[in-house]
Amino acid sequence: MPPSTPSPSPSTPQRSSIPSTPSTLVSPRYPAPDLSSLPTVFILAAKLASDRRDALAKWLVEHRAPVTYDVHKARIVLANVERFARARLELRGLGLWTEKAEAEGEVSGVVKSVGGVKEERGTSPRKRMRVGEGAVRSGKAGREGKRRRVNEDLENDLEAASPRPPASTVTAGSDGETTASDNSISPKPPPNIKVIKLHWLNQVMATSALLPYTPYLIYEARPVSRPSTPTPAIPSTTPSTPIPSSPAPQPGLAILQRAREDALPVKTSTFAPHGSRRFHTFHPTKHTPKLPARVTTEYEGEDTDIPPAPAWVRDKLLFSCQRRTPPNPPNAEFIAQLGKIKHARLLTDDEIGVRAYSTCIAAIAAYEYPLRHPAEILRLPGCDTKIANLWIEWRNTGRVAEADAADSDPDLQIVNTFYNIWGVGATTARDFFYRRGWRDLDDIVEEGWSSLPRVQQIGLKYYDEFLDGIPRAEVEAIAETIRAAAVRVRDPGIEILVVGGYRRGKEYSGDVDVIVSHRELAMTHNLVVDVVGALEDEGWVTHTLLLSLAASERGQATLPFKARVPGGRRTGFDTLDKALLVWQDSVWEGMEEGGKKAKNPNPHRRVDIIVSPWRTVGCAVLGWSGGTTFQRDIRRYANKVRGWKFDSSGIRDRRTGEVVALEGERGVRGGIGDAERAVFEGLGLFYREPWERCTG
């Protein structure tokens, strides 16, 4: 039976913690329920319309609940999200950094009952991390977006095991800004914050009763100080002395044969485990933002040098799918510097920073003129004075200090080495280094090989080969082999198209993506199984990393709206039948002379076979042909502008859940390219050639 809520004393200040399980309160002067006993409440704006948020706040005030619009003063945060990681990320976006804490009044190891289910509390001790200067191999440009989609879909969604900042007390000042102080002079840590699902408030409103919050608790948040990240100084107008580049990797050291280097003393990383986040949303205004005073004295040229704004800038087209983005933009060198910073944000668990830099990179890549003035940057979506100052620094010195710091940071070098293992995402790469203490690939082989999933073992085994680019001629040969196998197991009506980086015109691809289709629906049912079996029999496939029949299992229908896989987790980056393979050319010169024991010298390649029914093949091609930001913006555009949910398996109306058949009920009469054009037209977009979708 829940304990009753104690009556507050008139001299007692407003309470700063939630009562354990409050009973229903009824007041003769106010309609039930009376919420005056609640601590200060803040409603998170994420995934919530502003008018809905205001209506909820008004209802709370009418029922005597203390409401604040300053998250730093809140003790209850109502969030319209489900997962801890998303809630924590949204709070960071408001400047409030938190970590999971034990519920107030509880200690580690105590069994807590939530909705009748017992949950063990406690954390595992962290392992001391080691830092070395082993050879580090950088990832290939353009591979990062695809790797993130595939790797994060395959690996478990582990919480980033990053070193936490030193214990300190965080207090909220009168202006709501948090400050940190040493524990020796701070007598009491700040109270924890209950982050609760908004559904709790909906139930309170529906039942007119103050319900227990525990079943709706997302997490108990302990405020912590924001991890410090060094801010590069803005250089003077005189170019500085060039910064020595990091030593090149030693090619003679093979990753699985060389002896382990002696352990070095622990060094302090330039980048914090969680990088600083700067998410700049483009809000069109009548006035151009002003640059800091230092910028106006550190560039050459006048405002008259600014060329006229492109049409997409004048029309304030925010989505990258609405504009042309060529493969070799005029500002490629500066974009490369921003790409280094974005990659560092990815490795340091800064999702908002990754999105922000992705947006500004895509905008600058689409800008058709060489940048000559910082005011040009300020008028681009997603770009503000931070990006303008980075451009000033790069123009004056030919370098960007923040990008150089990312390149030379020893911790990031090690995490990046792990990230380049196929099947390992950024979260697992950080776990390898910060929690398990591994500092090179040999450590993984010697200390953790048996604990790795099979796909990560294969990614480690062929580490070097997977990092080598695949030339276009080899991509075409692989695609033709796949087409021939598909024809043998079905009929000559098979149609294929190579997508990914190859279709965008890249000379070298990180992997090979091939879409296979047939105009008869029955022919694509379970086709991927038969194709992979034929390729394995002929010796082309050495390992099958993933074989998914997601589409065939649901009758090859478009993914249902708000679909989830068993276990409650949302579906991954793609919902078509597909096979992720390790490929090796089974023919080589002199193979007959060596006999059966001859070793195949051909490199192992990563190959993805995607099977799509003909009626939605245009969506499949569009979903696999653009750069990462282009693909993200196609989905955002379909949602924000059309009210649709775009998926590689088709499109559904978010209001009704019905399929939107942009390609017709049975598909287009023309070819695969015509199907993709029909999707562009149905979305209300101008068709962009694949090489005009190079957003990065």
TrEMBL record:
Residues 168-186 have a biased composition (Polar residues). InterPro entries: DNA-dir_DNA_pol_X (IPR002054), DNA_pol_B_palm_palm (IPR028207), DNA_pol_lambd_fingers_domain (IPR018944), DNA_pol_lamdba_lyase_dom_sf (IPR027421), DNA_Pol_thumb_sf (IPR037160), DNA_pol_X (IPR022312), DNA_pol_X_beta-like (IPR002008), HHH_MUS81 (IPR010996). GO terms for molecular function: DNA binding; DNA-directed DNA polymerase activity; metal ion binding. It catalyses: DNA(n) + a 2'-deoxyribonucleoside 5'-triphosphate = DNA(n+1) + diphosphate. Residues 1-11 have a biased composition (Pro residues). Keywords: DNA damage, DNA repair, DNA-directed DNA polymerase, Metal-binding, Nucleotidyltransferase, Nucleus, Transferase. One of its GO terms (biological process) is double-strand break repair via nonhomologous end joining. DNA polymerase that functions in several pathways of DNA repair. Involved in base excision repair (BER) responsible for repair of lesions that give rise to abasic (AP) sites in DNA. Also contributes to DNA double-strand break repair by non-homologous end joining and homologous recombination. Has both template-dependent and template-independent (terminal transferase) DNA polymerase activities. Has also a 5'-deoxyribose-5-phosphate lyase (dRP lyase) activity. This is DNA polymerase. It comes from Trichodelitschia bisporula.
